[in-house]
Design brief:
215 residues; alpha+beta; 3 domains; two-stranded antiparallel ribbon; 14 strands; rod-shaped; disordered C terminus
Length: 215
């Protein structure tokens, strides 16, 4: 016959006692290892030091889970774990270290927005964020590039071969095709109908060269 000191109960055999300890929250019992410890501190030390529990024990919350996946789901739902990288399934100890991870890990090169300190599921999600955010005002939509100030954006538009024939320096406006720009030159007050003559008299002018991106 087995006896539980904590509960002052007798059991028919040791297996029944183990089952009792496993089901009771009053006992410092480790279910995976089927071990009963003298106190809670001893069980915690066991969870922290055992290789068997390395992927299932949550040190911060002092909980051991059935699997590493169960522990990860717990971390995602818990306010005690605010610094998680969901795509890498990693936890960082502070916001600064999480930010450093996003900024230096190559896996986030196309998904992390430095300006807003946000990481996205994909490069496309990050681009959609930039298009809808007031923090990203200096973007080249056709090239999908983001610049920190209008001067750098204008330099890109005036020097990049992809914008020859589509960018109007006078109005600082870029168009989807050379034909749209010609229509702009013809009717815009700042450019006037002179644009039509430029288009027909100087067809090889840099402003009227059709780039393959818009063919």
């Amino acid at each position: 016959m087995a006896f539980c000191e904590g509960c002052k109960r007798h059991f028919a055999h040791g297996a029944a006692l183990n089952q009792h300890c496993a089901n009771s929250t009053r006992h410092p019992y480790c279910k995976p290892c089927k071990r009963l410890f003298n106190d809670w501190a001893a069980r915690k030390q066991h969870w922290q030091s055992s290789v068997y529990h390395a992927s299932t024990y949550d040190i911060k919350c002092d909980i051991d889970f059935d699997s590493s996946e169960a522990r990860w789901q717990h971390k995602q739902a818990s306010a005690e774990h605010p610094y998680l990288c969901l795509s890498c399934r990693l936890e960082q100890p502070s916001a600064d270290e999480l930010r450093e991870h996003f900024g230096t890990d190559g896996r986030h090169g196309s998904t992390y927005c430095f300006q807003c300190d946000l990481d996205f599921d994909s490069e496309e999600s990050r681009w959609q964020h930039k298009q809808g955010s007031t923090e990203h005002l200096h973007m080249c939509i056709p090239c999908r590039l983001d610049y920190p100030d209008p001067a750098q954006l204008q330099q890109h538009l005036t020097t990049d071969e992809r914008h020859k024939g589509t960018y109007c320096e006078t109005c600082n406006e870029d168009f989807e095709s050379r034909f749209q720009r010609v229509a702009h030159l013809a009717y815009a007050e700042s450019c006037g109908i002179l644009g039509i003559f430029i288009f027909f008299l100087f067809p090889h002018h840099s402003y009227t060269t059709q780039y393959q991106l818009y063919k």
